[in-house]
Amino acid sequence: MHGLINNTLQCFLQDTYGLATWAEIARLADIDPPEFEAMLHYDSALTDKLLDVAAAHLCKPRDAILEDAGTYLVSHPNTESLRRLLRFGGVTFTEFLHSLDDLPDRARLAVSDLDLPGLELTECAPSQYVLICSGPVPGFGLVLVGVLRAMADDYGALVILDHEGWSEGRERIAITLIETSYAEGRQFDLGGAPLDRRRSAS
User: Fold this and answer.
1) 143 lies in which domain range?
2) From which residue to which does any coiled coil extend (predicted)?
């Protein structure tokens, strides 16, 4: 597992639940030292153990933690650079959805050895979409549901999202776009400050 993914989980748990909670989760998961280097690679079993320990310690389903991590990636002040990167996918939420197919390639431009699952968006009917995530490790689709939910709020769109499960290396997300201008979206300036680097864990 790429260290950037583990580092992101660490930052999510630290920023959401506090440094003391992260320290206890890291201890229970036998992560020593209690931090992940973003540019290293780790055994996927360690990521699974981290998620299982976090779910038990926080008394939350693992799926909920993954979805919350996706929401964190867009909505937390410490991840503003990623939010900006995603907003460059389109002026409207519909345009953003159609840009998702290119997201793994755009991620590799920033981190060449980061291998995200493939994404394929299909419009089944007007305002109804299916997003397929293809990859050997289940869970990315749940993170993506959190990202999509937060991005819909960012654009001011009203959507219904349904993660329909994982089977044979594929996760399926049903997306129903109810209204594109349901609420006022968050301010976004294309000419804003340049993207900053992902912060290192402290």
Assistant:
1) 74-179
2) none
